[in-house]
């Protein structure tokens, strides 16, 4: 006999005239659940067809990069880093982690340093972006680029474009009196100390460990530590 055909305990009661099998009980229970469930009208509609990511509508974006106006058509999901590297072929800004954790993609957007991998390109409509290519040229280096060369502030160089863009912005931040996490007095002009520089540059990771030389380079451009 199939196990489900064994008499249910209730059917074995001497008071029960009807001998139900376990299978009968299970069938009756399932039917009851189905009858008491939500009607079809109450159930959420099944999700519609997913949009095809290859045929998403494109969006027009106009911005200035390194002083040059650009207008491009973009998928709305494109990051600023991918716009720079894949659409404008400015490959100086590096993709290290693509998660906002290494700083290799740092660029200056409207005067502020940002991680380009974390910023959607469309947010920069009408904006102005400066990458490492826009700071100086091989013939006429930006003072920060020249200081990195002088102080040997790199080894493999992968982090260097982001380090330099960040360092340029850091010097501007300190000169503007913007305090950092290690500033002792939030109302006083921050000191240009090694601790300040290390704190402010902490979002730019150098896997080669060129940190001390990087600090030397920034210090020289900033006019010496206090
Ligand atoms: Fe943007 Fe690492 S690539 S922070
Ligand atoms: Fe190699 Fe910084 S110089 S990661």
Task: Give keywords.
DNA polymerase, domain 1, 5 strands, 2 domains, binds FE2/S2 (inorganic) cluster, single chain, Ubiquitin-like (UB roll), about 230 residues, 5-stranded mixed β-sheet
Describe this structure in words.
The structure is a single chain. With 226 residues, the chain is of the alpha+beta class. It has 2 domains: 57-134, Ubiquitin-like (UB roll) (Roll); 136-226, [2Fe-2S]-binding domain (DNA polymerase, domain 1), CATH 1.10.150.120. Helices cover 31% and strands 11% of the residues. A 5-stranded mixed beta sheet has the order 2-1-5-3-4, sandwiched between helices. A hairpin with a 2-residue loop joins strand 3 and strand 4 (112-115). It is elongated. Mean pLDDT is 87; it is low at 10-17. It binds FE2/S2 (inorganic) cluster (2 copies). One FE2/S2 (inorganic) cluster binds at residues 154-160, 206-208, 210. Its main location: periplasm. InterPro entries: 2Fe-2S-bd, 2Fe-2S-bd_dom_sf, 2Fe-2S_ferredoxin-like_sf, 2Fe-2S_ferredoxin-type, 2Fe2S_fd_BS, Aldehyde_Oxdr_Iron-Sulfur, Beta-grasp_dom_sf, TAT_signal. It is an enzyme of class 1 (oxidoreductase). Residues 59-135 form the 2Fe-2S ferredoxin-type domain. Residues 34-56 are annotated as: Disordered.
